[in-house]
Inverse folding.
């Protein structure tokens, strides 16, 4: 699915990623853990193609095709989704309109018929139910006045609706109370399937109690310094990151 | 029916689509302005002596007035002697639409304005003003049954002289300002509306203004009178051909609302803005619009979507004289490429418990320069007056500008004033968020801008709201790299 080899990246000419290697196969869930400032968010921004995050060396491939030259929207349309750590407010644009535009952009890209309001509502109703969200939610402007939990739930709602192949969950657990965390974890778990992959970015292992990654990688100073199975999360919980510093 | 998004998409690839010239035989006076020209205009229109006198009085004054230079706009000095002050399609005195020059009907058809009454299923009565004269007014008979008068200004002068004489210049006097004074001297036509006591006008009234001839100015005059307990919603649209020279449009609009009357006046202004790459040509839109809430509990609401013109100078205002009267101003103005706009409103509170609301949304892109200029004045006797003002600007790119000049003058301590102003860029984070969801940058800009304008668009009548959304797409086309 996603293949990263010796990836170096910088922002404002400051080198942040210093040789990342990562293979995510279909159906796999990988978690990247690390302290603040280790390069976790930079990695997700480079994968999604955000402006000013430039890869200087190495390769980034989706299904054996280099995506480094792709625009952010092409990466999205081709199946890469990111749940934002800080979802963005768009005043005056209601959630339905935004989500419908996104879904129809994707359908159009694949030559499918765009959905009308009724068709869209059908899709969205199921997903709202799964995340225990009210219909009223759709009429509010995108992320405006949402609580932290609502914002994150809205991100997952978008994920369920857009059906990405690779979902990056960037600090999705931050700002969530335990009930919201459980609902979101359930939504994510139900979404898992043999052809969908995940990259979970977090610095706590709290979320990992509810969603179980297949692999865990520790990122320190722009490099993956250790990889392992779920047990690595527990080890990190116990010992912190210091023992991994070189 | 195409959905909203399809309309938007089809418009994204368009340039100024109203830039064509119609080949219509017309009678145009030679350029130049003097007393004789004014006498000719008045004579052509078969006007009574009092109106000619009024015109000449304005002209005498105009000659002495200095051209205002305080607005935050730059343009080449206008040569008032190089403009023709009267142009009309040759065929006139029409008994019905069948007699209208078919080329003219085609023109309005191209503009998306069906004049033929059978097509008027949308229930909007239209008065079409072509260059200097009103060429057709639809649904006149239906309106007459309700006692509503909707006709060209010239016709009103003939048929309803007492109403015209009573209210002409009552809100915008002939001496008001340079352009209004010029208009008073040379105005050629326009629309006239009278809504009788207790009548709720059964349909939207609409005027479409079109400048066609080269080197002509358009000086129309609109007068709307809403008698006690009446209600009317009026729409105004404007387009012009693409020409390299600048053309002047100096209109005057006067609104009078008596006791418990409501006037809602909406404008979608789409005059030719000039060439996008050089700024050559385009309309100078120097317009005076004012409404007087004379009666108690009366209400005047201005909604404007300003996307066209090379230079706009315009301040639709309300004089809140009646106790408990309400004035509203909702505005979206777009300046892209080389466009400049200095626009805003004035709310003059005279009566007790008067209330005003100002919501102004400015969008600047390209090298566009935009100024909001607003004045809220609370007079001594205006007990418990209230005003809420919100002026937001959004900048797209780094070569455009937004400026805000609010003037507040309070002479009664019981007044409550609120003023909010923001200026922001379309955030990189907003764009990225949309892109990450597969939405293209062009679509993202239009989505964000439409969200930004929502508070104003929701004040527009339904069919205008769709048109306004479309227009924004076209106006902002190419503003993102």
């Amino acid at each position: 699915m996603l293949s990263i080899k010796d990836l170096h990246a910088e922002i404002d000419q400051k080198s942040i990623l210093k040789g990342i290697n990562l293979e995510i196969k279909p159906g796999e869930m990988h978690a990247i853990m690390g302290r603040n400032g280790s390069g976790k968010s930079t990695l997700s921004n480079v994968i999604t193609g955000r402006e000013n995050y430039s890869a200087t060396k190495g390769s980034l491939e989706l299904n054996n095709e280099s995506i480094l030259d792709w625009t952010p929207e092409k990466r999205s349309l081709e199946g890469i989704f990111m749940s934002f750590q800080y979802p963005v407010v768009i005043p005056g644009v209601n959630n339905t309109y935004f989500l419908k535009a996104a879904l129809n952009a994707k359908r159009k890209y694949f030559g499918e018929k765009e959905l009308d309001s009724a068709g869209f509502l059908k899709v969205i109703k199921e997903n709202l139910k799964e995340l225990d969200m009210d219909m009223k939610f759709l009429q509010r402007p995108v992320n405006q006045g949402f609580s932290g939990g609502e914002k994150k739930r809205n991100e997952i709602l978008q994920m369920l609706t857009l059906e990405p192949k690779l979902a990056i969950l960037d600090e999705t657990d931050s700002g969530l109370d335990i009930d919201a965390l459980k609902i979101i974890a359930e939504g994510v778990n139900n979404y898992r399937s043999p052809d969908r992959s995940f990259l979970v970015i977090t610095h706590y292992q709290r979320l990992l109690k509810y969603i179980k990654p297949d692999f865990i990688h520790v990122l320190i100073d722009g490099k993956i310094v250790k990889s392992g199975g779920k047990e690595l999360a527990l080890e990190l919980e116990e010992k912190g990151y210091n023992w991994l510093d070189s | 029916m195409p959905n909203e998004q399809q309309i938007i998409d089809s418009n994204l690839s368009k340039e100024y689509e109203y830039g064509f010239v119609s080949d219509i035989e017309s009678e145009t006076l030679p350029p130049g302005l003097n007393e004789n020209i004014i006498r000719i205009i008045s004579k052509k229109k078969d006007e009574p002596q009092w109106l000619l006198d009024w015109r000449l009085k304005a002209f005498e004054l105009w000659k002495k007035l200095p051209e205002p230079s305080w607005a935050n706009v730059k343009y080449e000095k206008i040569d008032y002697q190089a403009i023709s002050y009267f142009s009309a399609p040759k065929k006139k005195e029409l008994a019905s639409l069948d007699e209208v020059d078919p080329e003219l009907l085609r023109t309005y058809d191209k503009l998306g304005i069906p004049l033929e009454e059978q097509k008027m299923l949308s229930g909007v009565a239209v008065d079409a003003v072509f260059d200097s004269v009103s060429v057709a007014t639809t649904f006149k008979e239906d309106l007459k049954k309700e006692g509503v008068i909707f006709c060209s200004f010239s016709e009103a002068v003939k048929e309803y002289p007492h109403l015209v004489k009573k209210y002409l210049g009552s809100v915008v006097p002939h001496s008001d300002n340079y352009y209004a004074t010029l208009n008073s001297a040379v105005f050629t036509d326009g629309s006239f509306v009278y809504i009788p006591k207790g009548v709720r006008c059964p349909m939207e009234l609409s005027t479409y203004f079109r400048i066609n001839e080269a080197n002509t100015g358009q000086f129309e005059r609109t007068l709307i009178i809403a008698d006690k307990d009446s209600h009317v919603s009026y729409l105004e649209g404007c387009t012009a051909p693409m020409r390299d020279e600048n053309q002047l449009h100096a209109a005057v609009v006067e609104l009078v609302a008596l006791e418990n009357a409501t006037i809602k006046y909406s404008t979608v202004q789409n005059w030719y803005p000039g060439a996008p790459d050089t700024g050559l040509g385009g309309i100078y839109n120097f317009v005076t619009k004012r409404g007087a809430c004379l009666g108690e509990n009366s209400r005047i609401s201005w909604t404007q979507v300003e996307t066209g013109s090379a230079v706009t100078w315009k301040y639709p205002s309300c004089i809140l004289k009646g106790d408990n009267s309400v004035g509203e101003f909702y505005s979206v103005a777009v300046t892209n490429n080389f466009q400049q706009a200095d626009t805003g409103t004035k709310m003059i509170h005279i009566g007790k418990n008067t209330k005003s609301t100002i919501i102004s949304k400015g969008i600047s892109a390209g090298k566009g320069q935009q100024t909001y200029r607003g004045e809220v004045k609370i007079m001594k006797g205006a007990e418990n007056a209230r005003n809420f003002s919100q002026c937001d600007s959004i900048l797209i790119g780094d070569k455009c500008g937004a400026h805000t000049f609010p003037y507040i003058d309070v002479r009664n301590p019981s007044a409550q004033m609120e003023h909010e102003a923001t200026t922001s860029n379309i955030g990189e984070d907003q764009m990225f968020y949309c892109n990450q969801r597969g939405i293209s940058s062009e679509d993202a800009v239009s989505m964000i801008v439409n969200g930004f304008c929502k508070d104003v668009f929701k004040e527009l009548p339904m069919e205008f709201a769709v048109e306004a959304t479309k227009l924004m797409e076209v106006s902002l086309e190419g503003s993102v790299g």
